[in-house]
Amino acid sequence: MKSFEFEGRSLDFGCGDGLFSFIRAGGRFRAEFDAFQKTEQLDRFYENADVYDAYDESFDPLVTMPASYQISVGFDHKANLLRKAAALGFYKETVQGDGNGPLPFGDDSFKSIFSNIVYWLDNPISVLTELRRILEPGGAICLMLPNDTLPEYSFYNSLYVETKDERWKWLELLDRGRLSDNIKQSKSDEDWRENFARAGLVVLHHSQHLPKTIIQTWDIGFRPMFPALMKMVDGVDREKMPGIKAEWLNALKMFATPLAAMGATNDERSAFHCYVLSK
């Protein structure tokens, strides 16, 4: 995203809780902040319940450094996540709506648009056409989109969906609907460019990131242990939490830093594209 900046009236399309864009803009938090401080339905975690879609008035992001810029509009379909996003003071306004339908914005409304959700939606050409409609002439859209290699790197998809081998059915518990329900569109660069052309968009920049090794590490991560970890966190003395978190992070960095460096080669087999587009 280094070649993309939020300029003029801007839109974060599918902003969620806003944390990704806030941190990218230089925002920082106190060590006591926990993005998972409010969750629900942990008993239904393995039934694919969205345990993070929760909010109460005690939510406080504990911001220590505001972002270096603001985004005009944060758009998402989940009201609870928008409430969290609004608490950051990063979005000038938040708007709830369905990205699958006509967007509640006029023609030529935004100079810059960012999104990491187009591949979650039902019809990418329809979505891209709507994004083009609300983009002003000379503006830019930055999109993160899966490559057609992503399903190949998924343990759930390659070992169970493709083979139908019942020995791997348990991988449904690992996927929890991510690939089957959320990542609906995984395409090659050529196919994405065809979709852009059909929507009336041109490519200004293209790069790729997240190679196979990183994707397969992310595919497992700590996710299966999440309910148990949350119960452990609840039992930790609040005053001791910052020190424990620092210890976790220092240990994780020993592995995460060299692992992340493996994704710096812009390999065409990497699992995600980054595009900057214009009319």
From TrEMBL:
Q: Which InterPro entries does this entry report, sorted A to Z?
A: Methyltransf_11, SAM-dependent_MTases_sf
Q: Where is the Methyltransferase type domain?
A: 72-142
Q: Which Pfam families match?
A: Methyltransf_11
Name of this chain's protein? Methyltransferase type 11 domain-containing protein
* Natural source organism: Rhizobium phaseoli
**Taxonomic lineage:** Bacteria, Pseudomonadati, Pseudomonadota, Alphaproteobacteria, Hyphomicrobiales
